[in-house]
Design goal:
Length: about 350
């Protein structure tokens, strides 16, 4: 277990990463017109990536995650992907309405068990629309958050589009939390803790309507990895749904290689495509201090890199969310820079042949 240590000032000391393969800039690839059709990416294929920024904190209880898309761009996410030979189309940020409301005191007209509900619904609808557009153009949606409520919109869109093409979407939810609360079980009223629950068909009706007539995901389409802070009500749903969920102690016992292989194998049985919902709080705060909700005892950089490379090798990754980056709680943007390094483990095309699957 990675135990975060603190120095005398009470800040986190950052241990060394360990070894990560360095993806060198790619040699020139022929890029003309190559598009994602019904087949997910093959290892090392140059893609057209559609970047969607979602500067929202409306589903969370702390300010700062709304600056995540900017922090990831400052960490050169689009440029680093271009250096890999990908074509990157950054359509900018969606416009998030804030209505000047304080995060800590929800508007009186709104339900305190579903804070900022109207804003979240509106934002998710926009995310859903942009994600659908991106996929219909044959591009790989890369959604930059923002708090994790935005995944209701992104995953709903990807699931719908994959289904339309005759496939079935599986989701890897890399997170310290289960995000499976409902308005009745939530201790905080924060909708970023309800997104996976909604996608599985449980939640308030306007949030559910974003997922279309059918629920977006069945329990067998989901693998949760990195759990260590789960509310009582969520634990009950995880059990009842029979969700594949790997908690930190089990990951430490089995090793990440075995866990991610089992997770992908399970999804592969029914799912043609895989979406990664990457919550940066899955990482231990020793490495990723700049997140919305820090939970100690999390994944190491090497463990998350193993997840990314296994997804790369699976050839089924079709879309990704990067959420809960909070540069206000970070040090020198190191969490965003790390996020970029890790995303390249999944989407890097040129590694000198060392990782060729
Ligand atoms: Mn989350």
């Amino acid at each position: 277990m990675n135990v975060a240590r603190r120095d005398t000032l009470g800040t986190f000391l950052r241990p060394p990463y360990g070894w990560l393969p360095r993806f060198a800039p790619s040699p020139p690839f022929p890029l003309g017109g190559r598009a994602l059709t019904s087949v997910p990416i093959a290892t090392g294929t140059p893609l057209t990536l559609g970047v969607i920024g979602v500067p929202t904190d409306r589903g969370a209880s702390h300010h700062g995650v709304e600056l995540g898309p900017a922090a990831l761009r400052v960490a050169r996410l689009p440029d680093r992907l271009r250096e890999q030979g990908h074509r990157v189309l950054d359509g900018g940020d969606i416009v998030v309405r804030t209505r000047g409301a304080s995060l800590r005191s929800p508007l009186r007209s709104e339900d305190p068990r579903l804070r900022n509900h109207d804003d979240v619904v509106r934002t998710c609808a926009l995310v859903r629309q942009r994600t659908l557009q991106t996929m219909r153009r044959g591009h790989f949606p890369l959604i930059l958050g923002g708090d994790h409520s935005l995944s209701i919109g992104s995953v709903a869109a990807v699931a719908q589009e994959v289904r339309r093409r005759g496939g079935r979407l599986g989701v890897i939810w890399l997170d310290a939390h289960a995000d499976m609360n409902t308005a009745t079980t939530t201790p905080s009223g924060n909708i970023h803790g309800m997104s996976l629950g909604c996608l599985l068909g449980r939640g308030e009706s306007r949030l559910l309507s974003l997922c279309g007539r059918d629920r977006s995901l069945a329990p067998c389409d989901v693998a949760l990895i990195g759990l260590r802070s789960v509310d009582e009500g969520e634990a009950v749903w995880i059990r009842q749904d029979g969700l594949a969920a790997w908690w930190m102690p089990e990951i430490e016992r089995l090793g990440m290689a075995q866990v991610i292989d089992a997770a992908i194998e399970r999804l592969r049985r029914r799912c043609t495509h895989i979406h990664l919902s990457f919550d940066l709080d899955s990482l231990d705060p020793a490495w990723a201090a700049g997140v919305g909700t820090r939970v100690e005892g999390g994944l190491s950089v090497v463990q998350v890199a193993a997840v990314m490379r296994a997804l790369r090798a699976s050839g089924r990754l079709c879309s990704m969310d990067i959420v809960e980056v909070n540069p206000l709680r970070d040090r020198e943007n190191s969490t965003s820079e790390l996020a970029v390094d890790l995303v390249l483990q999944a989407l890097g095309t040129w590694d000198g042949g060392r990782l060729a699957a």
